[in-house]
Amino acid sequence: VCIASTMFWAGFEQAGSSFNLFARDLTDRMVGDFEIPTTWFQSLNSLFLVALSPFFAALWINLSKRMINPSYGFKSAIGLIIMATGFIVMFFASQAAASGLKVAPYWLVAVYFIHTVGELCLSPVALSAVSKLSPKRMAGQLMGVFVLTYAMGNVIAGLLAGGLDPENPQAMPELYWTIFVFGVSVGAVVFVLALFTRKWEKLAPDDGEDEHPGAIIDANEPVGKP
């Protein structure tokens, strides 16, 4: 789960680096006489998060009522793979931009939507998994390790985008394709591991049992990254 979280934020946090450069330099932000500020695109994730959270909360509850309970590992793998597919959109968008033309803003809107869907599949579920599955005596330490995945993901995101030259948009498709392949590959590995670790999750107490006093994270809580 922590590995999936690290890789997820490494891709997701391109929003503050390469996506921001893409919005500034390669996106047609004119609507009539008004130019959309680059920073407005950063708000899309929050808007989608608020709008979609109730639907995902209802989804997990309804699946549970139907006795369909995907494992934590499966949900984390799906979230990571969904995030990675967003880079397919950016791959084609950056290819169009590499031809010298600015692209429409709906490319970025689509990516932020896809990434928010991935975040809702992974982030609250992973937080719940660490809270529930950690050995009681190590709950605090492992929660700290999980929170560290945010920092590690940001470091990797910076390293990936750090070598990108805004004046050389021809390099963007390769970057986004690399992130896509890497994200899907790690997601596939997490998915395979989830097939074996599901039986460990069944050994954990039910959600109603107070295994970790003070840990009040619910598996269906519709929140994103704290």
Biggest sheet architecture: 2 strands, antiparallel
Please identify, by name, the CATH architecture. Answer: Up-down Bundle
- Give helix % range: 55-70%
Strands, total number: 2
Radius of gyration: 19 Å
Query: How large is the count of helical segments?
Result: 7
Output the helix-strand order.
HHEEHHHHH
* Sheet with the most strands: spatial strand order: 1-2
Low-confidence stretches: 207-223
Shape: elongated
Structural class: mainly alpha
**How much is the average pLDDT?**
85
- What's the CATH topology name? Growth Hormone, Chain: A
Strand content: under 5%
CATH homologous superfamily grouping: MFS general substrate transporter like domains
Distance from N terminus to C terminus (CA atoms, Å) equals: 17 Å
The total domain count is: 1
CATH class: Mainly Alpha
Write a short abstract of this structure:
This protein has helices spanning 2-12, 18-26, 44-65, 72-98, 106-133, 139-162, 172-201, and strands spanning 30-31, 34-35.
